[in-house]
């Protein structure tokens, strides 16, 4: 039996699936709330401030804790919708229902209200964020997630807008999904086979925005670590303005990347939302079931384990199902290859905020049939001191952003004492951290969006965050950086030469380490943020990639290309298991041997700034992919040392792949390396690295 409401026929809806689904010649709306006493469906014409219809959902349509209603006569492509939820308002119990607020559907697959990036919103519009309806029809052809072995990845962390927004990018539609497609040839030239996209869930760039007093420029939430909804791609990153453009453009981008052998990992944020604490807005979850979706104190305030005002209640059964539904949706409908989870330790906390030894959400992700084969990467800490590095509940699947690797490489690079032993661990996949898990558990990085760029790492001793207008409080103070003798930009040719050499040294350390390397967008061309190590609010050239830097720093760019090609050429650098330092398969020498200036005499003392080792190519991929021998000598002392070279068989010789101590940093393309004249020893100049190939 149907009822007439305004001009629409309504009927009892299906409780599943959640969200709004075109169905039976109408639209099925379904939303869960345990504590709401009533629910009203609110309909808008796209772009209009005032609703054109409000439909109370009859109590008889409720199925358990689910309000479900079907509506015929709607053109779902032209509407936006939300809900008014009524119920008790008892903040001390975490109940804050407000029927005057219109809330977004947590399952909405597209979002309206803020579809143009950075466009000033109408302050008189109380309902800034609206849910939209899509049909998910897209021609994927034979596209599927690529499932490249994780140890074979070269991950490129990038910001969708910042990658092409600068005028030098020459993009048709700067700062969009579409513009990235125009640059796929660049990613291929560089050798990238995986991009990690910073948040693309719909977020509000105006969250906590402010005006710079000196220029009047708006400081926005540029990074996007404040989701409004989890299922909808960021509309402001679309080139088109038609409803659903962002959906098809992101799918088209992923399809094009896959066609070029490039995987897509999404940086996802499930630890908090843009609703903030008790002073923040009601956008969605607060108004639907505040006490279920957030971890609250006994007196109804918000635990702030995320550092942003609230903490998502990830291991509540209902919230856990929402997150799993979301991940399944992105894999099934967008064909993404994996996820990097921001502040992932939040996802190990129970409903009271206490750490769990066996978090059900993480176990469910690993056991989920749709997520099987999907890469899962944790940022293994949160903002309240929970630190899981090397101890994140992995269940044989999870990898981790390795902050210890980052700090060790940085310290050794700048010449700190007492780092040689730690370097040997870092470059062999951090076996003490990941015993039993293998080097595929470590995502190795030296720079990421949060912190200095690589050029700034070798140009500044101190952060320069004055442009954030936060009294210098934002950003880490201990960056293990070294300015090479002058703070900031300089015309001193010797300083600039040293900086370029240090960048090349850092890259070699990263790409010859066992594990999974991640590089930061723009480091390959010497991108600078002018010393800003927390540019989260800088939607301007500080954060954008200036493509003119390729020619300005062409030596760095060419060095990057050659080093990435070298790693991809040599499987002995990409073992999925720990090297043992033994000749366990009778190959004539161990899989890994450590050296110092003298053969077989590594110096791991507290005063050492040198390290050398040889990888036995016969053990490449456990002997399944025989390779050349590779010898690497690292000297971070300011004076040169002559290193004795391991002996090769009579039919083999050492060839020079890279020598950063030579003018402009000697580098050769894989398989074109010239034979080394002196096969017994080599001079490794101060603050330089030599990489040799035995063949």
CATH topology of the largest domain: TIM Barrel
CATH architecture of the largest domain: Alpha-Beta Barrel
How many strands, which pairing sense, and closed or not: the largest β-sheet?
Answer: 8 strands, parallel, barrel
Q: Tell me the number of helical segments per DSSP (H or I, 4 or more residues long).
A: 13
Low-pLDDT stretches are none
Count of extended strands:
31
- Structural class of the helix and strand makeup? alpha/beta
Q: Work out the count of structural domains.
A: 3
The shape is: elongated
Summarize the amount of helix as a percent range: 10-25%
The CATH superfamily of the largest domain is identified as Glycosidases
Structural overview:
The structure is a single chain. This protein is α/β, with parallel strands linked by helices and 695 residues long. It has three domains: 3-132, Immunoglobulin-like (Sandwich); 150-572, Alpha-Beta Barrel (TIM Barrel); 580-694, Golgi alpha-mannosidase II (Immunoglobulin-like, Sandwich), CATH 2.60.40. The chain is 19% helix and 20% strand. The chain is built from 13 helices and 31 strands. It has an eight-stranded parallel beta barrel with strand order 14-15-18-19-20-21-22-23. A hairpin with a 4-residue loop joins strand 10 and strand 11. The longest helix has 19 residues, at 493-511. The model has no long low-confidence stretch (mean pLDDT 96). This is Glycogen debranching protein GlgX. Keywords: Glycosidase, Hydrolase, Transit peptide. Residues 157-567 form the Glycosyl hydrolase family 13 catalytic domain. One of its GO terms (molecular function) is isoamylase activity. Belongs to the glycosyl hydrolase 13 family.
